[in-house]
Amino acid sequence: MDRFRAESFIPLTPLAFDILLALAEGEQHGYRILQDVNARSGNAAPLHAGTLYRALARLLEQALIEELAERPAEDDERRRYYQLTERGIAVARAEARRLAAQIATAEARHLLRAPA
Amino acid sequence: MDRFRAESFIPLTPLAFDILLALAEGEQHGYRILQDVNARSGNAAPLHAGTLYRALARLLEQALIEELAERPAEDDERRRYYQLTERGIAVARAEARRLAAQIATAEARHLLRAPA
DNA sequence: GGGACTATATGCTCAACGCACATAGACGGG
DNA sequence: CCCGTCTATGTGCGTTGAGCATATAGTCCC
Question: What is the pTM of this model?
């Protein structure tokens, strides 16, 4: 079989990477991901719920995340829990490396050391 | 007048940021931008010329870049030269800061220190 | 019992991109 | 001189992803 290539998923859309980052700490359900992303993005345009759930569906199709069958007891029945797949971890890492390289370029080209 | 807000352009698409980065070193023409972006992206899917020129047109409309009237003497007549506007610099900086924050999160969540 | 919040999902529209293709000048080898 | 390749910019067409509104319903607490 042909090897899986993380590069074929790179670059991720900004939203997709935000979601994978939200799941990097461990399994989580959609609404919490929404809150995590919005909290980290600060004052920027808030992520709409509809946008998030569709993005989750795409990531599921691509097998970058998967849904958990089991859930914590006593939990809200409506929630759907997700976690990163091995593939998702590999892709998130590859994307993080790409971004780190861009930051390095930005620094080398004097975009970071300057007035706000 | 209402202040210009760089945040309203954030997040940039990966391609838009690549182009602004290519121009961070100084004025450049389209084809060289194409080569710079493709060189920096390594083995990833190469940027197609058509995609680039349309992206340049968008950045012009948004006034993140502007075309130079003057060109170096003895230059290929067909070339069109572009440079960052002040707005473009501000937006590129804001995006670079956003990405740096994401990298920091990725590290904090143990996405960077691990196998390739 | 009523309003705010939690939780997931679909409908509609538009912007951005991938890829194919068009056009044409430059440039070097045979 | 001609031909292929590279340089250089651009348009046509279809698909994907995202923004925003809206739908639905359970929870939580006053």
Answer: 0.91
